[in-house]
Amino acid sequence: MTGALVDFNLSSELRDALRQWRVRAGIIGLIGVAALVAGAFVAREQFFRSYLWSYIFVLGIAAGCLAWLMCQHQTGGAWGVVIRRPAEAAARTLPLMALLFIPIALGIPYLYSWSHADVWQADAILRQKHSYLNPTFFIVRAAAFFVGWIFLSWYLNRWSARQDEGQAEPADTKMRHISGPGIIFWGFSVTFMAIDWAMSLNPHWYSSMFGLLFIAGQGLSALSFLITILVFLSNFRPMSEILTPKHLHDVGKLLLANVMVWAYFSFSQFLIIWAGNLPEEIPWYLRRFQGGWEYVGFLLVIGHFALPFALLLSRDLKRNFKLLASIAVFILVMRVVDVYWQVVPDASKAPFAVSWLDFAGLIGLGGIWAAYFLSQLEKRPLMPLNEPQLVETLEHGRE
Known about the structure:
Layout: H1 12-42, H2 44-75, H3 78-91, H4 94-100, H5 102-106, H6 108-111, H7 117-121, H8 124-129, H9 135-164, H10 168-197, H11 210-233, H12 239-242, H13 245-276, H14 283-288, H15 293-312, H16 315-318, H17 321-348, H18 356-377, H19 390-395
Helix pairs in contact: 1-2, 1-18, 2-3, 2-10, 2-11, 2-17, 2-18, 3-11, 3-13, 3-18, 9-10, 10-11, 11-13, 11-17, 13-15, 15-17
């Protein structure tokens, strides 16, 4: 099979399907947003807590897709070419996520104790951290994250479009050259994002592994999402004529590797802190080992690592479209649970309880984001035209 023999534009059946799903996602999102707005009036503190963890989860998919896009440009390979257009579409949603950050900026006094003058002035530790943990610098850092992410997304998408137009060599070189520094920026920005938005909910606690947990989590969320989208697209032309079990096998192996990386980082943090047994470190886990939160932690051990790890060891499963998509969706659900477990105990400082606003935040932000993502996915052919590895990708698994 060669690129000249395949029409990579969306078929009419796929456009209709995407339009239907976009409308559904938009309606669900608007319902969730309406519930969130109502919740902001009746339970303001809970509104900001629910918004924060839901936002971190949804942003993780968009920013994680940007990271996978840059990895593809750096490493090459058929696995990356087939996910490139969905990853580009997801990266183009980052301006929307920047806009949706505004409620978090407005909610700083409700979320972060260090933002109150009487609190930090009376606390010797917070006085030392005040030059970093203050509302102005918090917003400046968030703006820097988004400026960097949006620039990388714009640059890569711009040159990808030029590659489609026939400027293959300069486009390929420029995308590859920006991706190396871009991955480094993404790693540092996600680390500081984790410190600012999640770790500082408990400003006395710290962990050198915390940023790595969010890096691994974003990568896992994004890859699970991309696999789900690939399997959905495989039901329609042109992807039904392009994707082979070997393509899915490749990304399935990456999914298994990311599950193991997340588990390694999670266990490393736990082992180091628990072995050290220092009073300034162990309260983070103590809070999550009582009040019902311990059951959530046990669920993560089984559902986020043990079960997907055992299933993804199977070669046949990784080559089965429906089974691999089912595992990817399950991991996305576990990612929701993990982000909730990471953020909410320190935000609420209460026993485990799920608020209706938690559901509203997730379906509101998730629905709006999904609708915008689907609108972006429709705008370009589903395979990059004039990509140097396009022929190799189309022949992948057909030898």
